[in-house]
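Posting this for the archive.
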Amino acid sequence: MMNTMYSIYTLWQDISSKKSHFRSNSSLIDFPFNRNMFSYSRRGKGFPTFSIKLNQDKSKLAGGELVKLKTRNRYSISPFKSSIPVGKVKVKTITGDDVFSLEERDVYYLVRGRKGSHQKICLVHGSFFETLNTNELIRQSFGQVLDEKLAGTNVSDEVKEQLSAIFSEQEDFSRVRNVSKASVKLRFRILTEVKPEGNILNPKQYPEVVDDSLNFIVPYHSEEEKAGVLEKMQGVMGKAGMKRLTTFSLKHPLNGWFVVFQTDLR
């Protein structure tokens, strides 16, 4: 008996076939996903919301993608609390899979925004938000603090650069610090807010993502890679299913090209 193949593409197929459910006001977590494709899922806060099962035959679809749900009653992305959005992440034990068969996983965000009676829903790769390496983002942000606090001092640029490099790991901020004689513990948490360039729901920045649409957004770096994305989608949706989708390329001002598969919610 042939094993069922799961991937982010089959998740898209599942979502698009049930798109009428988005007309309700129910939470994304209550959407009737085919949960047989998940190796891990959670209802509460934290990352990820669920992980797609790995496929034994990785010749076409590896599976194993991690997905985080995000929703907001406006056309903006809700802040990422205690995490920085990424396109890929190395996993350990949270997925329930054989980690070593695919240690690095693609990350997608299922984003839902509302504006009055309209809404936009996007299943978007994390690289749409991660236009700068996480460590580099933290390093440069901390460097700005040093520039502000050490302005007018004799501290050299070399020392500032060394200090910035030391404080570039997200884990350094997420650990609880236990200070002697203090009756409380302290932990710094990172809050990540999306700028207009990264807001896929922003009608001024990305007018192609229209009201009342469901979108699947995947990066590509060459025409060959784009052709591979289209082939994977057609392999899941079939030729008839592809005809029901609007397909186009979208240019991110900071991170290259993405292919968009779009269908209306009506």
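Helices lie at 8-17, 134-149, 157-166, 171-174, 223-243. The mean pLDDT is 88.
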